[in-house]
Amino acid sequence: MADNSKAEDTASDSVEAAKNASDKKEKLADQVMQNPQVLAALQERLDNTALTPSSYIETLPKAVKRRIDALKQLQVKCAHIEAKFYEEVHDLERKYAALYQPLFDKRREFINGEAEPTDAESEWHSENEEEEKLAGDLKNVVVIEEKAEAEETNLKGIPDFWFTIFRNVDMLSELVQEYDEPILKHLQDIKVKFSEPGQPMSFSLEFHFGPNDYFSNSVLTKTYKMKSEPDKTDPFSFEGPEIVDCEGCTIDWKKGKNVTVKTIKKKQKHKGRGTVRTITKQVPNDSFFNFFNPIKVSGDGESLDEDSEFTLAADFEIGHFFRERIVPRAVLYFTGEAIEDDDNFEEGEEGEEEFISILS
């Protein structure tokens, strides 16, 4: 009996303590809510939370909403005009590509030893010309030795020009495997070709190879199909042409030379007899030359899985990089000067972001 009475007293004390604590909280809340500064701060927070653009639009009169809808109609028409602008830009790219091509053809001749530059063509004044003059004697000795060595080896052109670019550029070197390197040393030129007038917008990359022991193709191609029109379901997302699909080519590999596959051996057990046999099987292998066998975008609107979408996006980025940077500025990627410029540009962007962050 004593124990029961003690337990009842303890429970009663706990209930009383909880009630007192609740009363104190209510009194404190009443005092806080009577403070004008606290109320103003709460009201401002509620106003900022509630007043989103969409909620604000909902509060507008019907006549104003009607005018906003008219502005959206105008915006859609602007998007279609912008699409036409980019189509004309593509036509200009095609026109100027024809003007660049003779220079690129001469570049190819110098690289592959098909022609030698004249003294006027090879004259170049370095930014470090003064330093070079101070070291003139040493430089002359080196040049003489280099000339003697070149004469002895009958060196032509610029060896491993494009392969060196692949090695210098991180985006490309990550794709190249050790067994790809001997093949890329046969790469003689990369060209960009634009779609003809009246054809759907696209551009192609042509990789020209010299005779080699790996495949019989002289040219490997990759075509990127582009779209330059607003999406009917989301016209306001239009920001210019975008790559929507790409198409590779068939590589005619010579027997036993296909680096995009590897042969593995696998043991297989017969279900009935229990005997074991070894079978050989070809499976995909990492290689730069998978670049010419891209993931296909489904035409029926079926969405790709996350990994495929990432792979396709990376493919599109590489295609753009070849077209806009590598091919037009090849010699600067060979020497590394363009890579330094790219690094400085990225550092400048980071500095600008930090500056904006400080201001905000």
UniProtKB/TrEMBL annotation:
<comment type="similarity">
    <text>Belongs to the nucleosome assembly protein (NAP) family.</text>
</comment>
<feature type="region of interest" description="Disordered">
    <location>
        <begin position="1"/>
        <end position="32"/>
    </location>
</feature>
<dbReference type="GO" id="GO:0005634">
    <property type="term" value="C:nucleus"/>
</dbReference>
<dbReference type="InterPro" id="IPR002164">
    <property type="entry name" value="NAP_family"/>
</dbReference>
<keyword id="KW-0539">Nucleus</keyword>
<protein>
    <submittedName>
        <fullName>Nucleosome assembly protein 1 like 4</fullName>
    </submittedName>
</protein>
<dbReference type="Pfam" id="PF00956">
    <property type="entry name" value="NAP"/>
</dbReference>
<dbReference type="GO" id="GO:0006334">
    <property type="term" value="P:nucleosome assembly"/>
</dbReference>
<dbReference type="InterPro" id="IPR037231">
    <property type="entry name" value="NAP-like_sf"/>
</dbReference>
